[in-house]
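Quick start: read one record
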Amino acid sequence: MLPFVKSSVVKRAFVYFAVFTLVVVLSAYLMISVDQRVMPTEYFFGTLLFFVICFIAVFYFEVGRPLKIILIQMKALLTGKRYKRIYTNRMDEIGIIAHFFNEVTKSFEKVSMDIKEGKRMLSELEIASQIQKDILPPECPKVPGLTIVAKNRPAVELGGDSFDFITKGDNTFIYVGDVTGHGVPAAIVMTMVNTLIHTFVDVYDNSYDVLVNTNKQLKTRIKSTMFMTLLMLRWNSLSKKMTYVGAGHEHLLIYRAKAGKCEMRQSGGIALGMVPDNSKLIKEMDIDLDEGDVVVLYTDGVTEGRNMAGELYGIDRLKESVEQFANEYGPEGIVNHVAQNYSNFVENHIQDDDVTLIAVQIMGENLKGELGSSSLLSTAWSGESTAKK
């Protein structure tokens, strides 16, 4: 706390000067009164010189020397050299200056520590971000009967969107999820869900049991305010059948190649982590698909993207984009062109949510093709497609 000025150095200097002057005058008067032979002028100036020297000495030790100490430390601070705190019990102007210097240096030290801590945390976030990127699939898999394309762009260093492709025997599980919030908490929940799903896919051969057990384990480990919406597809390469299970996620889009139209189906269910037991709240349902049909999965970062005018990209605009590009391009072209269309819409408006988009096309005798390894690149979200049907 800043001390109050209880004794002013200026006042003390004035008192010293007045006392010295009074002493000089009285001394001269007394000496002249006692001894008339003493020369008044000589004695006066001699005595005055003596007391001036005394006054200068007192002023130096009271004001000059303390100020010099403070100035030396200030110069060291301003030139980036090592400096020391100034310890004093003085309650005058000199003490105030010393106290102010100490408070300033204390603030500088705190700022310096905050900067170092910020750099350390930034380094850890970069490491965590890289780990998270390594957890997400680096490229789309080649699955018999399917062509899969995906794109992802996190809004911050650590994202809450998750997606993966897991093949076990004849079944391939494809899912996309979105954790509430952003940053470290969302990334931790996302990683937990990914790990749990991989664990239960090795145990169960259907999406329903995988998500019921994932929810049960997740609920016991996270706060009630954290949950994850998810939509999972399961493709059986032998039966050529696809099913899906929704856990409170965005609508499922299905592009019908014969009709050239995109239909919307509710994912249903309840988000993972909201209730201890979701076994009666989710259901695995069939999707009737023909050759050339495309199933589109996405997170709300796509539909809730805003442009500079504050308008939402929206589900209707997404459907129109899918229909427009699906008529001419394959799944890679759908994802890339929708991504480009989305980026053109939002322009330079900062997006505060992660964005994930996945297209899965049913292949057959008349539709054959291979997907390049560069299909999934989060840094190429706005890239244009060159893949044709």
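The first strand starts at residue 146 and ends at 153.
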